[in-house]
Amino acid sequence: MASGDDDDPIIEEIDVYLAKSLADKLYLFQYPVRPSTMTYDDVNHLSAKIKPKQQRVELELAINAMSPNYCRSKGEQIALNVDGTTYDETNTYSGKMMDKQSFTSIQATTNTSRYAAAVFRKGELHITPLTGILQMRPSFSYLDKADTKTREREAANEGDSSQDEAEEDVKAITVRFARPESEQARQRRLQSYDFLQKKQAEEPWVHLHYHGVKDGRSDHERQYLFCQSGDASENSELVKTPKEYLAMLMPPLAEEKVVKPVGPSNVLSMAQLRTLPLGEQVKTLMKNVKLMPFANLMGLLASGTDSTAALRCIQQVALLVQGNWVVKSDVLYPKNTCSPHSGVPAELLCRGRDFVMWRFTLERSVMRKEIASIIKLPPEDVKEFLEHVAVPRVNRGWEFLLPTDAEFVKKHPDIGHRQHMLWLGIQSKLEKVFNFSKEDFRPKNSPQPEPVHVSGEQRLKVAHERAQGNQSSLQKDLDARRAGDGVQVKEEPVEEPMDTSSSVPNGSVNGYPGATSPAFDHTNGDGGNTPAQELQDFVIKTFRKHFVLTLSEFKRLLSLHLASMPVGRSVFPSISDHMLQDAILLCQCKQIMVPFPAQTTAAADEKKVFALWETGDESDKHRRVLYELYKKNYRIRRNVIQVKLTQEFGDFPKADVDRLLHECCISQAGMWYLKGTIHS
Prior knowledge:
Layout: H1 2-7, E1 15-18, E2 27-30, E3 45-51, E4 56-62, H2 72-83, E5 100-107, E6 116-121, E7 124-129, E8 132-139, H3 141-157, H4 163-166, H5 183-190, H6 193-202, E9 206-208, H7 216-222, H8 242-249, H9 270-273, H10 278-289, E10 291-292, H11 294-300, H12 307-317, E11 318-321, E12 324-327, H13 329-332, H14 346-362, E13 365-366, H15 368-375, H16 379-389, E14 390-393, E15 397-400, H17 406-411, H18 413-434, H19 456-482, E16 508-509, E17 512-513, H20 531-546, E18 548-550, H21 551-564, H22 577-586, E19 589-592, H23 604-607, E20 609-612, H24 620-630, E21 635-636, H25 638-649, H26 654-664, E22 665-668, E23 671-674
Parallel strand pairs: 1-7, 2-8
Antiparallel strand pairs: 3-4, 3-9, 4-5, 5-8, 6-7, 10-12, 11-12, 13-15, 14-15, 16-17, 18-20, 19-20, 21-23, 22-23
Helix pairs in contact: 2-3, 10-12, 14-16, 14-18, 20-22, 24-25
């Protein structure tokens, strides 16, 4: 022991004092975006304010607009964007130039019990505990104000649109009476993020006066950093017995109390998450994310985590759906809880959600109405179930959110088999509760038993042989119908249907001549009341009523027309898309090549837009100018259309513009679209 003391002698002893005068109001400010050599000590501080409970500080500092490094044009432009051209007391920049910047604080740490500010003077060290450590970062709230101004100007510019554009759809409002709030619901509301944000906003700002480093008031306040009492006995915190001091250095083992940050109780940082056991980490992640591939889960866990252990944990809190893991219903809705939307007990919620998950094990998409009709839960709860794992698609219902993870299933067949057995057990319980059979939900695209695989070359060869074999009989049938012998229905053997519009060399479609067939009379049709003539009559009648139609919408109208005809009255054969398009183009119509945006979800038939090109009246040339505009843009403002028509035809009345737009277009959010393209 003596030799150790000789090697490390005591050089000096320093008395340490604990100053308490500023213990509850001393903050350390850090400026992480600025080097330590460039302080703000000499910068003019325009204003300062604080919210003491939240330890939130805002500072406004002047900007030297006379500096050679300051761009005056940019400063004036920013001030113009933020405040506009008018002047009032609420303007952010009163000098019509960006001459100040704001700083907002965030807490660098929530536990400052280990931090203090120290001052050394005359051989004495005086330390003062810190109340908070705040990092001051530039605030860009003025950009939000500039965006608001821009939106207001755009709304004002759209004010010249017709009343139809601004008219909003009438929506039905459901009136509900609030239930008495339970204690559990009240606790959840008090811990919600919105409630905490509201409480934080209620704390008023306390405005402060800033004093510079060299100010006399600052010198006076700095004196409080020194202990005001010279009697060491009053500093009881620093007068400890050796045993007490040793206990402070090496405290007994006890459960460490984690100081949680100010925020919602259901928010957990990744640093805090990784202090939990592996099972709790997996449960917390799945409870928050709801749906996740196993590879993503491993990426969120700490590096070096054993994948086998993670697989054991995830099977306790999640089920496998299409190769992805979905959190179990009883984890989301524990026993003795209820729905935050409708108050439905957790037991019923779990059964309904299990049914939704089971349906996704069978197919990629489900229909919300079908789900709601079976589980018979409020629509808010059904929507929540679907939003956890799916997204709505136009005309396809709700589609599973993630692609099937076939790689995981292939890599872990034992887990896939075990999960399949679990789903069979869940299915048997659901069948008893909801009284259904799995056969009721067989996917439409499920493979038929014992499918026959035929190559493309074999299909083409068979089609050519079939067309050549049937050519003579088809021609005889056509001649007989032209001779007025009546319509004869040829009985074909039951076999796989095919599109003969591309494989029959004589241009006929399902036994009838198409628009491109040599046997088709483009002048007089096919004689009498033939299918081709009937189709052309329907095309002309429909387009004179609607003017603009997509191929998808035209097919829908044709289906309605066929359904309205008496039984046995229909003379239409099976019609291909090619035949429909040919018939439309033969009836004074043209296809408008609308440049749809890249992110459109429109189907191929919805992108084919046809318009009536010629009717014989004066409005034809007006419509053609409109169509030419839509070949360049898929949505256009009204004033652009007005200007173009005025340039082409001189003074163009507003009433004629309204009539033209209502014939061919439809409006949404101040923009005009061709009919049928607004969904994009």
